[in-house]
User: What shape does this take?
Amino acid sequence: MLAKPSSAQHYDSHVKSGGSPVDLEASVESRARETEEATVLRFPARPTPKPVAFDRHELTEILNLYGRHVADGDWRDYAMEFSREAASFSVFRRSSEQPLYRIVKTPALARKQGMYAVVAQGGLILKRGHDLAQVLRVLVKKPKLAT
Assistant: This one.
C-alpha cells in the first residue's frame, strides 16, 4: 500500500514543480474547508410549524355546548383532529356514522372571513366568524313552549 505524502513532502514537490508557496497554502486551506463542510450539519431554514389546537377557553365553550346536547340525547360522541392548517371538533349522533357538525378553527382565515366555522354533515358552512361564542349560537336549540 502506498503511504500518503506528508504535507512537508507535498510542499517540497509543489515548489520543485514550479508552484509558489502561496498557492500551496491556498490549496491546503481549501482542502481543510472542504473537510469541514463535509462534517457540518445543515439545519432546516425554519422550524416545523406546530399543529393548530383549541385553547382552554375555546374548549370550555365547545364542551359546554356538547354537554347540553348530550344531556338532551341529541349527541353521543365527539372527535378532535389537529393538523398544521386547522383544528376540528366533530360531533356524532352515533360513533359509527359521519359527523353531524364540525367546529373548525383555521387561523389562516382569521383576518379574512373569521377563524371559526361550523360545518354541517354535507359540507355546508352554517356560520363563520371571528368570535367562537357567536359562531356556536347556530347549534344552540331555541327553547320551545310547552302547552
Summary: The two ends are 105 Å apart (CA to CA).
